[in-house]
Design a protein that fits this description.
Radius of gyration: 14 Å
Structural class: alpha+beta
Shape: globular
Largest sheet: 2 strands, parallel
Distance between the termini: 29 Å
Number of helices: 2
Number of strands: 2
Order of helices and strands: HEHE
Strand content: 5-15%
Helix content: 25-40%
Amino acid sequence: MLNIQCEKTVEFLFNNFAHKTNFYNPNWQLNPDELKNVSIRRTNKYEWDEAETWVEMLFYSFRKLVKVEIVGEPQVYK
């Protein structure tokens, strides 16, 4: 339940307060068919607590394009 509330809060903040760029590069266009089998796996806990906020903003956008899986694997980078 807390994750859903956190996700909704991040979504609201991201949609209403994040900087929106006017820059568009057509070379960055992603074909949805190419992304059907792509997934991103992320850990469910970061050793650096402050990372949770800004990393979640990235995954919020990634979820619009690909499947994001939260896994129980530990964060390997220290």
